[in-house]
Amino acid sequence: MTAQTELLSWVESANGHSDFPLANLPLGVFSPDGGEPHGGVAIGDFIFDVRAACDAGLFDGQALDAAKAASGGSLNAFFALGASARKALRRALLELLGEGSAQRERLEGMGESLLLPMSQCQMHLPAKVGDYTDFYVGIHHANNVGKLFRPDNPLLPNYKYVPIAYHGRASTIDVSGVTVKRPNGQTLPPGATEPSFGPSKRLDYELELGIWIGQGNARGESISIGEASSHVAGFCLLNDWSARDLQAWEYQPLGPFLSKSFATTVSPWVVTPEALEPFRCAQPARPEGDPQPLPYLHDQRDQEQGALDIELEVLLLTETMRAKGLPPQRIALSSTRNMYWTVAQMVAHHSVNGCSLQPGDLFGSGTLSGPSADSLGSLLEITQGGKQPLELPSGETRTFLEDGDEIILKARCRHEGHASIGFGECRGRVLPASR
């Protein structure tokens, strides 16, 4: 089989592209200037218009069914078709966009009716999210946060038995580039006996992997661990914005509420499981003494190749840095290999009680911090709860986010013998709270 490093496209900008070479082909929803949102595929610096390709008769068979489902204003119908249709569309796209495409002359002749410059298009949320669940599978983050509140017992007893999660708010999920307004809420200031109301003073981000659900399950029926990965339609980057002072006051006894529900930002492109196949790896072995997963969460194949090797990066751009023309500052570099539970285990556990998952449901992995100081996925960890300010090249410091700050998440997959691929950006800028 031809190595993905040799997969070249007649779309010249795709060859060697940092995010979107021919090996990637992520799907999303975009609108050209003045146009309506519809489905497209990222290829180099361009968006391949799936609806225009359907109208031009470029697909047939199962690929045509998949392309039609992916051509609308959301990808829910495409997600619902499952892996077979998704793979058929990918094969067709590889043939159409490959360097030796039999259709090359015709496609080049279609110009911007088929390939639109990405810089001239607006991206939209790729699917209508019916339900959103935020997990807590980053064990280093769980340990770090636990130590802030329980130094002698950072992890509660259930953590290594149960993929911990809470039900989030789907209505405030938005796409990269949309601003985030600082939330108002109740906080209990240090030393106070009664709460006060006002804007959060401890606004934070969380570096997460987003998981889009494809085919769901009937209510009352569970998804087995061996079948769970086939229910995943794709992946994105996710920023779970967090108001730490609101969270500290409200989270007992039921967990996060207003401290999380005000905003969640996702990257616009859905990177498919097929594009990530070369970057699968074994789930890291559990430390000696840790319990093994209960049988419904254990599958040998999943343990051998159910993890993903994706490099995750966080950058910060302040108002002052922007004014001085300074580039965003990297503040963390981590990896999806820091997940204590696999994606399949998350899917299996979510459905084991009979909960029905649906196409377009979204999971967040939880904050994916690494073991070192330069791999922490939130300011809460970087600054030790605000005790050790982060120093920036502009001369500024941060304990938590200030108005005008912009958080940019990026991701990259690299493996010898394969073209590296990326996810694009997950970007959000903080605006002042409403008065």
Automatic annotation (TrEMBL):
Positions of Mg(2+) binding: 240, 260, 264
Binding site for substrate: 136, 150, 247, 251, 367
Residues reported in the UniProt entry to bind Ca(2+): 134, 206, 208, 240
Domain of life: Bacteria
Domain Fumarylacetoacetase N-terminal: 23-126
Keywords on record: Calcium, Hydrolase, Magnesium, Metal-binding, Phenylalanine catabolism, Tyrosine catabolism
Cited InterPro entries: Fumarylacetoacetase (IPR005959), Fumarylacetoacetase-like_C (IPR011234), Fumarylacetoacetase_C_sf (IPR036663), Fumarylacetoacetase_N (IPR015377), Fumarylacetoacetase_N_sf (IPR036462)
Entry EC number(s): 3.7.1.2
Pathway info: Amino-acid degradation; L-phenylalanine degradation; acetoacetate and fumarate from L-phenylalanine: step 6/6
Domain Fumarylacetoacetase-like C-terminal: from-to ranges: 140-430
Cofactor (UniProt): Ca(2+); Mg(2+)
Gene Ontology biological-process entries: homogentisate catabolic process; L-phenylalanine catabolic process; L-tyrosine catabolic process
Record bears the keyword Cell membrane: no
Designated name of the protein: fumarylacetoacetase
Organism of derivation: Stutzerimonas stutzeri (Pseudomonas stutzeri)
